[in-house]
Amino acid sequence: xxYALTDPFVFQNLTAIGLVIFTISxxxxxxxxxxxxxxxxxxxxxxxxxxxxxxxxVPAACVSLMFSIIKRTLLKEQVFISVPxxxxxxxxxxGVVFITGMINGGLMGGRALGSETWGAKRYxxxxxxxxxxxxxxxxxxxxxxxxxxxxxxxxSGVVSAGSDLVYQLGPKFYYLYMLFNPExxxxxxxxxxxxxxxxxxSWAASAVIYFxxxxxxxxxxxxxxxxxxxxxxxGLLVLSMVGGxxxxxxxxxxxxxxxFYYEGLFRTVFFVVxxxxxxxxxxLLCAFADRLPLSIQRSISFLPVNIDxxxxxxxxxxxxxxxxxxxxxxxxVPKYLILGKGYKFSxxxxxxxxxxxxxxxxxxxxxxLISGNYHNGWLTILxxxxxxGLLAFLWFVWKGYRALYHNYIYSPPDLKRxxxxxxxxxxxxxxxxxxxxxxxxxxxxxFTGLVGFSIAxxxxxRVAKPVPETEEKALPVTEGKTKAAQVLVPPAVRSFRT
Length: 498
What we know:
Blueprint: H1 2-6, H2 11-24, H3 26-40, H4 57-74, H5 84-104, E1 117-118, H6 120-136, H7 146-155, H8 161-169, H9 186-191, H10 199-221, H11 227-240, H12 246-262, H13 269-288, H14 294-299, H15 309-329, E2 345-346, H16 347-358, H17 366-371, H18 379-409, H19 416-435, H20 440-458, H21 469-473, H22 480-488, H23 491-497
Antiparallel strand pairs: 1-2
């Protein structure tokens, strides 16, 4: 170990260090592998001992599923939660991705291993997202620990701020990028002289916003007797804008709207209060928008407010090249409709094209056409995996929505807020993915994680509980059909309809 630590940035040494750490921590993994996977799922930590700066949730999901299978084999009392309506589309999707990778290549090798063929990391994150779903269905979250586990699942995204913090601390602390994703600090490094976009801080603030919505609900956040919740929420909303991403604000707005609907607040006084606050906030933005930091101005550039021309031009440029890129890409779709292109691409072509783009020889999106990140949810699955991959994905999304909706409708009171937020977040991410922006190999982890977590939390897919016969026989004859009809409807459904 001492010899390996003398040159820790050599891949062989990193692997040896990682294996030693894993071996030492094996008793912890055997006892807490499911909880650790749950914590790592939404974090941006990096498995430094794996090639390609792989996200840590991928090996955590694989290890958790492996231990669950071993435990199931040795101890017969542990049974996986059976959800064939969700497992089947994911198995088909796994098969489509694997077959495409085998035919077109790219499954083996990769940039981290020195291969000229790049794209293997995207295959592994896609497989990891599917494997993670089955790892979630291998255990049941205790009811008494529902909020604790839910908080760990959502708040693990706070570690994203570590990437920006390490950059601020300076080169002496850059070794911490072995754990924190350095890509998140890329925007800060390239824009610090002008916009100074803090991607990690923005994502961390969004994670806390999600946790507050899940824990308190919209009704609890706007509780006048606990006004500090509203102040904290407003502060977090401002903090989430420092990344300069319009997508963060748009997604947050969609989540609030969907959560409003599932909490049934559109016909209550909370909707009036919320509308007044939105109107007042928009008035303040109109008055002081051009005085805000440029990164925040870029985040609100889609609103009809007066902002600095630098932030506006930077935001509009990305819209223009995306629209131009989509016009170029769309004619290529029929060619990959049956057999997708896959994720394989030439590293040499990518680097040469990137150099040409930086010298303004090629259009600004030419290198993206090679890498396959089309900034569009439909295209990032249709071109790599064809119509079969798209249909399998949409099948899972539909069945996942139905599962989350059933868990929400028939939820016990103590899980109602958690189930409603998981459903709201899932629906919002699907709308955002299919409408504004999406990248299949990254977003699939969000969808499978939310559905898998809901299955583990509710111990499956909830259904209406049948009314015991003794309860029906005990009804007074004088009350007639009205009382009987009330009993035959589950309490959760009655409260939902009310």
